[in-house]
C-alpha cells in the first residue's frame, strides 16, 4: 500500500512541477554607466557567410575603439530563428546584444526581458529616425527596446516585356488598385488568360493603406471589420471572379507572388530595394527587363534592430556595441554591400542612396530610399504569425466568394481578438 | 561465479528509461496539465479549468480539421490495408527481375515526405505537368484546381499518402505471407478452389493479425497527417484554411513566441481521444472475429 502512496505522491509532485513556468521576475535594470570593457556577446541572424568579413570588421573596429573589450559573435541560421530566441529567452541565455525584428521583440518586452535603451541612452531619439524607433515601442510600456539597425521597404516591380506584349504601356504604370484592376483586365484579354498582372491577396497592410484602423488606439482589440475593408475585399473578389488573378492566390503565401513573377507568369510584384539583384541570380534574362516604381499608397516599413538583454552582466559594453554596430558609418558601409538603408538621421543626406547609377537596380534603390521618408509599419506589432495566418485564411474565403467580405472580416477580427486576449 | 545485485537491471535499463521519461512521459503529463491553463512559452500562465475545451467546441476550424482527419482515415484505411497485400502477393512470386518491382514499390517510402509532397505539388499545380498534359490533350479546357479546391486538395493529399505508404506496408505483408503455409494453398487448389477463393479463405485468414496491425498503423498515421497537407497547401491549410488537419491546427496555435500552449495542448488531448477510437474499435473487431 505504501508503494501506491509513494507513487501517487511522485505523480502529484511531477504534475505540480511541470506545466507552468513562473512569470519573469521583475529585475532591476542593469546600470548603463561604467567603463566599456570586458566580454560582450552579439547575436546576428543569418549574416554568415555572406557578410562575415563585414561583421568581423565592425567587431574588430569596436575592440580597437574600446581596448579591453572582447566580442563573442554568434550567428544563427535563418530557419528557426524565432524558436532559437524563444529558447534563449526562456532559458535565461539570451546574448547581451541580439538582433530582433520588432515582432520578435514584443513578447520579450512584455515579459521584461529586454533593456529600455531609451532610458539608458539619452541620445537615442535624436540619432535614429522616429518611425524606426517607434517600432521598438509597445503600447502601455514605457521606453524603447532596440537600436534600429537597417531598414527596408517595398517597391513595385514590373515585367516590361509582358506589359508591352499584352497591350500595356510601361510608361503608364498603375498607381492605384482601380488602375491596377483595369490594366489586369487588359492583360488578361490580350494574353487569353495565360499571364496575369495581379497575383496577391490583400493583407492587413492593404487595409491600413485603405484607411482602415487595424486596432483600437489602446491596442486592446481589433477593429478592421469596417465598410471600407468590405469594399476593398469586394474589389478583389470581383477581380478573382473575372479571372484577373490566378487561383493560386487562394493558397499561396506572399512569396508565391514573387515566385510567379520570377517565372514570367505574372507582370507585377513587390519586393525590397535589392529585389532585382536577387532576381538576376534566379532569372538573369528577366532581370534587365524589370522596371521599378514607388509602392502604391503608403510604403511599408521593415525594421531590423539590436536589442539588449536586461540580464546582461556588462550593460556599458552591450550599449556601446549596439550603438557601434548601428552607427551611421557602419550602416553606410553595410548598405554598400547590400541594398538596405540606414536607420540613422545622419545618413539622410548620403548621396549614395539618393543617386542612381543608371541601372534598374540603382533606380530601385533610390525609389526605396525616397519611399522610406513616408514609409510606416503597416501592421501593428501585436499581430502574431497565427493571427496573420487566420486573417489570410478568412481573406481567401472572401476572395473566392465562399464567404461574404463582411463575414470573413468579422470572423478574422473575432479570431484575432480571441488570440490577443487568451 | 556471478553476482546479481538487485540494482543491476535498473542500471542497465536506466539510460533508456531516463530518455523515455524526459522525452515521452514528462511531455505527455505536461500536455495534460497545460491543457487546463492559458500557458504561453514565456511567462507561465494560469489554470483556466475547461476553458480551452469550451473554446475548442465552438471552433469551426476544429470541426473542419476533424472532418478532414476522419475522411483521410476512412479513405486511407481500406486502400492501405488491401492494396499493399495485393501488391505483396504479386511481388512474392519468384520470377526473374521481380526484385526490380519490389524496389520500385519501396522507393517512395525511402524518400522524404516533404520532398515527395513538393514534387506532387509541382505536378498538380495549375501550371503543372498533369494540368499541362490534360489541357494539351484537350481533356479539360481550364486547369483542374487540385491544390486550390478544398476536397480536391484533400484527395490529392490522400493519393500521395497512399502512393507513398504502399511499399512500407507491402514489406510487412511480404514477411507475413512467408508464414502462410504453402500446403494450405495446395490443399485448397486440390479441393478445386480458384485464386480468388484461395485469397479469401487461405491468404486473408493467414495474414489476419498483420492486417490488423497495418490497419492500426494506417489509422493512427492518417489521423496524425501533417506533412502532405502542409506542403501541398503551402502551409496555408488550403483555401480558407479548410484543409487543415488536427496536427496542423495544433502547430498553428502552439508555435512561436506567442504560442497558445494551453489551447494547443487541449487540441492534442482531443487528437489522442480521436486516435484511440479507431484503435480500440479495430482491436474489438479482431477479438470478435477470433
Automatic annotation (TrEMBL), chain A:
Matches recorded under PROSITE patterns: PROKAR_LIPOPROTEIN (PS51257)
Keyword match Cell membrane: yes
Keywords assigned by UniProt, alphabetized: Cell membrane, Lipoprotein, Membrane, Palmitate, Signal
Listed Pfam families: SBP_bac_1
Record carries keyword Cytoplasm: no
Secretion signal span: 1-23
PANTHER family found in the cross-reference section: ARABINOSE-BINDING PROTEIN-RELATED, POLYGALACTURONAN_RHAMNOGALACTURONAN-BINDING PROTEIN YTCQ
Name under which the protein is recorded: Carbohydrate ABC transporter substrate-binding protein (CUT1 family)
Source organism per UniProt: Nonomuraea fuscirosea
Automatic annotation (TrEMBL), chain B:
PANTHER family: ABC TRANSPORTER PERMEASE PROTEIN, LACTOSE TRANSPORT SYSTEM PERMEASE PROTEIN LACF
Superkingdom of the source species: Bacteria
Domain ABC transmembrane type-1 positions: 66-282
Protein's UniProt name: Carbohydrate ABC transporter membrane protein 1 (CUT1 family)
Organism: Nonomuraea fuscirosea
One Pfam family linked to the record: BPD_transp_1
Compartmental location: Cell membrane
Record flagged with keyword Transport: yes
Keyword list, A-Z: Cell membrane, Membrane, Transmembrane, Transmembrane helix, Transport
Amino acid at each position: 500500500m505504501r508503494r501506491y502512496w509513494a507513487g501517487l505522491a511522485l505523480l502529484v509532485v511531477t504534475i505540480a512541477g511541470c506545466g507552468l513556468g513562473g512569470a519573469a521576475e521583475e529585475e532591476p535594470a542593469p546600470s548603463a554607466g561604467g567603463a566599456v570593457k570586458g566580454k560582450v556577446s552579439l547575436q546576428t541572424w543569418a549574416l554568415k557567410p555572406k557578410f562575415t568579413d563585414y561583421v568581423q570588421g565592425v567587431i574588430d573596429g569596436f575592440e580597437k575603439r574600446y581596448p579591453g573589450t572582447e566580442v563573442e559573435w554568434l550567428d544563427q541560421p535563418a530557419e528557426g530563428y524565432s524558436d532559437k530566441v524563444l529558447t534563449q529567452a526562456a532559458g535565461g541565455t539570451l546574448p547581451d546584444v541580439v538582433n530582433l525584428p520588432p515582432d520578435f521583440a514584443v513578447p520579450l518586452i512584455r515579459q521584461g526581458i529586454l533593456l529600455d535603451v531609451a532610458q539608458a541612452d539619452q541620445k537615442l531619439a535624436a540619432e535614429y529616425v522616429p518611425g524606426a524607433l517607434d517600432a521598438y515601442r509597445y503600447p502601455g510600456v514605457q521606453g524603447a527596446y532596440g537600436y534600429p539597425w537597417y531598414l527596408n521597404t517595398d517597391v513595385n516591380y514590373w515585367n516590361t516585356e509582358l506589359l508591352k506584349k499584352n497591350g500595356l504601356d510601361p510608361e503608364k504604370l498603375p498607381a492605384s488598385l482601380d488602375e491596377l484592376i483595369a490594366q489586369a483586365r487588359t492583360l488578361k484579354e490580350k494574353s487569353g488568360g495565360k499571364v496575369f498582372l495581379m497575383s496577391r491577396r490583400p493583407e492587413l497592410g492593404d487595409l491600413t493603406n485603405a484607411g482602415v484602423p487595424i486596432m483600437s488606439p489602446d491596442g486592446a482589440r481589433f477593429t478592421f471589420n469596417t465598410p471600407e475593408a468590405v469594399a476593398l475585399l469586394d474589389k478583389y473578389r470581383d477581380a478573382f471572379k473575372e479571372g484577373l488573378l490566378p487561383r493560386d492566390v487562394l493558397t499561396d503565401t506572399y512569396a508565391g507572388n514573387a515566385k510567379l513573377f520570377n517565372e514570367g507568369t505574372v507582370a507585377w510584384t513587390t519586393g525590397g530595394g535589392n529585389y532585382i539583384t536577387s532576381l538576376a541570380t534566379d532569372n538573369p534574362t528577366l532581370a534587365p527587363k524589370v522596371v521599378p516604381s514607388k509602392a502604391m499608397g503608403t510604403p511599408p516599413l521593415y525594421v531590423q534592430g539590436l536589442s539588449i538583454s536586461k540580464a546582461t552582466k556588462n550593460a556599458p559594453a552591450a550599449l556601446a556595441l549596439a550603438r557601434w554596430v548601428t552607427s551611421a558609418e557602419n550602416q553606410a558601409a553595410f548598405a554598400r554591400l547590400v541594398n538596405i538603408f540606414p536607420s540613422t538621421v545622419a545618413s539622410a543626406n548620403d548621396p549614395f542612396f539618393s543617386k542612381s547609377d543608371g541601372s534598374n537596380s540603382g533606380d530601385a534603390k533610390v525609389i526605396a530610399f525616397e519611399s522610406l521618408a513616408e514609409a510606416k509599419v503597416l501592421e501593428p506589432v501585436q499581430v502574431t504569425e497565427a493571427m496573420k495566418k487566420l486573417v489570410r485564411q478568412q481573406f481567401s474565403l472572401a476572395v473566392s466568394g465562399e464567404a461574404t467580405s463582411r463575414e470573413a472580416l468579422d470572423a478574422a477580427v473575432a479570431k484575432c481578438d480571441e488570440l490577443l486576449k487568451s | 561465479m556471478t553476482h546479481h545485485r538487485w540494482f543491476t537491471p535498473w542500471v542497465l535499463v536506466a539510460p533508456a528509461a531516463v530518455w523515455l521519461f524526459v522525452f515521452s512521459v514528462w511531455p505527455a503529463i505536461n500536455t495534460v496539465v497545460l491543457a487546463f491553463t492559458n500557458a504561453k512559452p514565456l511567462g507561465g500562465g494560469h489554470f483556466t479549468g475547461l476553458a480551452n475545451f469550451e473554446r475548442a467546441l465552438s471552433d469551426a476550424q476544429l470541426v473542419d480539421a476533424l472532418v478532414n482527419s476522419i475522411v483521410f482515415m476512412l479513405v486511407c484505411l481500406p486502400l492501405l490495408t488491401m492494396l499493399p497485400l495485393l501488391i505483396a502477393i504479386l511481388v512474392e512470386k519468384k520470377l526473374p527481375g521481380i526484385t526490380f518491382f519490389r524496389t520500385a514499390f519501396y522507393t517512395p517510402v525511402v524518400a522524404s515526405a516533404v520532398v515527395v509532397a513538393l514534387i506532387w505539388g509541382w505536378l498538380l499545380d495549375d501550371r503543372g505537368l498533369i494540368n499541362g498534359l490534360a489541357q494539351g490533350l484537350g481533356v479539360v479546357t481550364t486547369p483542374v484546381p487540385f491544390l486550390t479546391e478544398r476536397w480536391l486538395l484533400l484527395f490529392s493529399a490522400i493519393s500521395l499518402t497512399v502512393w507513398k505508404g504502399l511499399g512500407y506496408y507491402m514489406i510487412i505483408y511480404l514477411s507475413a505471407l512467408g508464414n502462410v503455409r504453402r500446403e494450405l494453398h495446395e490443399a485448397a487448389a486440390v479441393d478445386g478452389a480458384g485464386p480468388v477463393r484461395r485469397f479469401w479463405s487461405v491468404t486473408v485468414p493467414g495474414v489476419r493479425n498483420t492486417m490488423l496491425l497495418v490497419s492500426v498503423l494506417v489509422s493512427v498515421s492518417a489521423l496524425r497527417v501533417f506533412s502532405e497537407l502542409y506542403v501541398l497547401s503551402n502551409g496555408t491549410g488550403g483555401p480558407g484554411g479548410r484543409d487543415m488537419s488536427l496536427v496542423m491546427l495544433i502547430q498553428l496555435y502552439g508555435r512561436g513566441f506567442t504560442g497558445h500552449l494551453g489551447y494547443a495542448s487541449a487540441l492534442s488531448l482531443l487528437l489522442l481521444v480521436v486516435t484511440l477510437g479507431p484503435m480500440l474499435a479495430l482491436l474489438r473487431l479482431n477479438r470478435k472475429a477470433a
